[in-house]
Amino acid sequence: MVLIQIPQRWQLPEHQVTSETAFFNRRRFLKTLVGAGIAGSALPLIGCQAQTATDSPTVGTRPLPFSTNPLFTQIADRDLTNELVAATYNNFYEFGGTKGIWRNAQALPTEDWQVEVTGLVNNPRTFDLDDLTKSFPLEERIYRFRCVEAWAMVVPWLGFPMNALLQAVDPKSNAKFVRFTSFFDREITKGPTFPPSQFLPFPYTESLRIDEMANDLAFFAVGVYGHTLPKQHGAPIRAVIPWKYGFKGAKSIVKIELVDTQPATFWNTLSPGEYKFESNVDPAVPHPRWSQAKERLIGANAEFEWQEVPTLKYNGYGEFVASLYS
Ligand SMILES: Nc1nc2c(c(=O)[nH]1)N[C@H]1C(S)=C(S)[C@@H](COP(=O)(O)O)O[C@H]1N2
Ligand SMILES: [Mo]
Question: Does residue 3 fall inside a structural domain?
Fold first, then answer.
């Protein structure tokens, strides 16, 4: 029963709290609603109360076979984040606007999942999970993970390089960007309580340049900590781009589309000044509302304790990715 008790010690002093939704100034937003003629009586209070009988944040996961890629284990100066800490401190706005959405996320229907790979490719394909894990050998990669909100973790993902998928579908020469689309169903992914989800640009989408997607580090994760992804981490397949801020890594992907022009994305549409398309981790480029020079490394033990550490350019992966930006 210990697992259901989410420790509170991680809650940071108010002045250190940064949030991706803080720009939703409540009054400004209400004005918009008034403008749209739906404020007041009709203001919907969309909650995320969907709770299941389960009380374990890793419910339903299965062990996965994998090999370890020694090239991409973390530069060994940071401890692995505790698994239950990582599984109970998430961003997944489809299931709510707080970090504690793991129970809500259990409503995600992952059976018979299909991922459509489409657009500017010579071999468009729709994969089911079985196809994916059989077509691409799984490896473990221990990556630093840095959210734009200035918290960080170290996570052992299981999956395969995006480049392997790219080879399989054979991009056309005019393919310049990839766009990832996350699962969305108004009845299931009800969004945060505020603002109401119909005012957010769902489904969640993210995008990379094709050369970024082809970089060795860019990764599709189908598992974490030796087993399939728990739903709150973006089951059954999510993107992990360790040199970029965490929001680039779309969860619960249903569509991968190669396109010729830079697509609109969820956060960039909401607040382009705060969520740049490129969004490489960089201590020298402050967020408009906070410095990015340091980060709060969370949870080497189960107590949600954190320590402040310097942020590294490209999240410490410059040797692999700096040449993309020269
Ligand atoms: N579909 C979807 N993907 C998403 C998000 C989201 O809200 N919806 N949040 C992003 C953000 S801001 C972060 S920091 C990471 C968090 O991943 P984790 O909860 O597995 O640590 O997921 C990213 N992918
Ligand atoms: Mo994030």
Answer: no
pLDDT at res. 301 = 86
- Expressed in angstroms and rounded, the spacing between residue 152 Cα and the centre of ligand 2 is 9
Nearest CA to ligand 1 atom 12: 247
CATH code of the domain containing 96: 3.90.420.10
User: Residue whose CA is closest, atom 15 of ligand 1?
Assistant: 246
Establish if 89 belongs to a structural domain. yes
107-110's contacts with Cβ under 8 Å and 24+ in sequence apart are 107/50, 107/52, 107/188, 108/183, 108/188, 108/189, 108/231, 108/235, 108/252, 109/188, 110/231, 110/235, 110/236, 110/252
The per-residue pLDDT for range 246-298, each reduced to its tens digit, is 999 999 999 999 999 999 999 999 999 999 999 999 999 999 999 999 999 99
Residue 6 domain flag: no
Q: Which ligand is nearest to the CA of 99?
A: 1
pLDDT of residue 20: 57
Ligand 2 centroid distance, CA of 111 (Å): 26
Residue spans of the chain under pLDDT 70: 1-54, 75-76
Work out how many domains the chain is built from and give that number. 1
Ligand 1 centroid – CA 97 distance (Å):
11
Q: Which residues line ligand 1 (CB under 6 A)?
A: 20, 90-94, 147, 182, 204, 233-234, 246-247, 249-252
Q: What confidence score (pLDDT) does residue 21 get?
A: 53
Tell me how far the alpha carbon of residue 37 lies from the centroid of ligand 1, in angstroms. 32
155 part of a folded domain: yes
Contacts of 93 (CB under 8 A, 6+ apart): 21, 191, 192, 200, 204
> Helix H segments across 99-255?
102-105, 129-135, 162-169, 210-213
